[in-house]
Structure prediction request, 117 residues.
Amino acid sequence: MSQEDPAGYPHLPYGAPYGEQPPPQYGYGYGPPPRRDEGPQTSAIVAVVLNFLSLASCCNVFGLPGGILATVALTRARERPASARSLLLWSWVLFGCGLVLNVALFLFLGLTGRLDD
Prediction:
């Protein structure tokens, strides 16, 4: 009493033992999700926002060149992703250097007592 299922599985009657069945093949219903390879575009958007936010809020002196590099990388993300990744790397390096410089400056000012006033 074995009938074929549209997906290629044998139809098992109620109460039949399970046994080993192969995984379903794609063809009916939903298939695997399409691959979303957006390249460096998402990282460029985050780098632009964080660099300009750090420039405005923390006076990060490296935020302006980092933001400019990230903006250029965002415009190049579709045509030349390798060049955009290189620019993004330098943008993140500038962001990190500015962040470390700000933390070191506040630690120095705090430890020497210049922030006590």
User: Anything to note?
Assistant: Residues 23 and 67 are 48 Å apart (CA to CA). The helical segments are 41-58, 63-76, 81-111. Residues 41-111 form one domain. The radius of gyration is 28 Å.
